[in-house]
Amino acid sequence: MGIQKFAILSTQSNIEWTGRKITGSHNGTIAIKEGFINLSNGKLNSGKFIIDTTSIKILDVTDPATNAQFAGHLASDDFFSIEKFPEAVLDITHVIDEHIEGNLVIKGISQPIGFDAAINTNGDTLTASGKLVIDRTKYDMKFRSGNFFKDLGDTLIYNDFHLNVNITAKAV
User: Fold this and answer.
1) Which one of 35, 61, 145, 160 has the minimum C-beta count within 10 Å?
2) Is the dihedral of CA 156, 78, 13, 39 positive or negative?
3) pLDDT one-digit tens code per residue, 83-140
4) Residue ranges of the Lipid/polyisoprenoid-binding YceI-like domain (predicted)?
């Protein structure tokens, strides 16, 4: 069977993010710009996703002015620095069964990451989903982190944010 390459269909793939703070949480989406997944003898072997950080959206804030202000803050150096770093990259380097290991690059900082994913193939279509838990402070996102600032009270933002990734890809 050998190596089979699947190209990610960006319009049919997405990432849902959730960030939590003491007083609640926020959630939204971020787009996958492009990428590929390789299967070796029907099993995930490697892959690479390019994430478009400029596409970040906040879904739970409905007031347009507040949403724009929040989006601007996520785009700033406190968080994603999207003018300097318009892309983030997930590079899959090692797979054991459904556990995936790789490197996630955000703001030019590469950190190892591990997560579980469910992968299905049907003919020339591949679907995959997984949940990543990311410590934002490893990527120089220290804003209101209890690790770096004291006495934040109910303004504290938790260090971990969650990404639910859903991918659809076609064989090339």
Assistant:
1) 160
2) negative
3) 999 999 999 999 998 899 999 999 999 999 999 999 999 999 999 999 999 999 999 9
4) 5-170
Specify the pairing of strand 109-122 against strand 125-135: antiparallel
Domains, the chain, in order of start with CATH, read 3-171 (2.40.128.110)
Whether the pLDDT of residue 148 is over 90: the answer is: no
Q: How far apart are CA 150 and CA 80, in angstroms?
A: 22
Instruction: Give long-range contacts, CB 8 A cutoff, 24+ apart: 100-103.
Output: 100/44, 100/130
The mean pLDDT of the chain is 92
Q: Is the pLDDT of residue 10 over 90?
A: yes
* Tokens, residue 114: 């591990």
Pull the structure tokens for residue 50: 């390019």
